[in-house]
Amino acid sequence: MDENKVKEFMNKVKSIEKGEKLDLSSGEDLSIGIMNLISIEEHLFFSAGKTKNTKYYDLLNEVRKMRVDLMKMMIKEYEGEVWCISKHLLGASMRVMEVGTKALKNNETEKAYGLFRKSYDLYNMCWALNLGVLDTKEMKAIKIPENEKPILQEEKTVFARVGTLVGKMLDCCRE
């Protein structure tokens, strides 16, 4: 991102902090619903494969249609691969969160926390992409310096920086 885009985004964040609230709570709820629909599609696919019962593919197709309709509500304008990138970011976020939950259940707290951070970063990246925080033409130019390690280092990776900025805009408790 160039400096002007960062300044423009920071001005948006400052206006939000001053009380000009951006209510994305419905969008956040919708995105979680979409994440679950993606997960259901995956489960139906594997159920069909394991049981050889094609009715699961028919259900998968119905769930997919619903997911597409709901994604149209969340992703109004996009170019290139943004639609698919958004879908995969949400799907990856859900799966990484589930792996983190299993690690937490197995008392692997450090591993779980790292996975939860990654899941949240993926989720925030989806929002950043769809709120125009990331310019898709400039995404190729994003490079993470060698000295910035992505694991458990706050505010240093592209994901962490974007997540912090988007996190200031999102407030799921606002009705």
Task: Describe the 3D structure.
It is a single chain. With 175 residues, the chain is mostly helical. The chain has one domain. Helix content is 69%, strand content 0%. α2 packs antiparallel against α3, α4 runs antiparallel to α5 and α5 crosses α6. The protein is flat, with a radius of gyration of 18 Å. The two termini are 32 Å apart.
Q: Helical segment tally?
A: 6
Strand content is under 5%
Q: Largest sheet at a glance? A: none
Cα distance spanning the termini: 32 Å
Q: Based on helices, strands and strand pairing, what is the structural class?
A: mainly alpha
| Total number of strands | 0
Low-confidence stretches: 149-153, 171-175
Which tags fit this structure?
175 residues, mainly alpha, disordered C terminus
Lay out the secondary structure.
Layout: H1 3-17, H2 25-51, H3 55-74, H4 82-105, H5 109-130, H6 158-169
Summarize the structure.
The protein is mainly alpha-helical and 175 residues long.
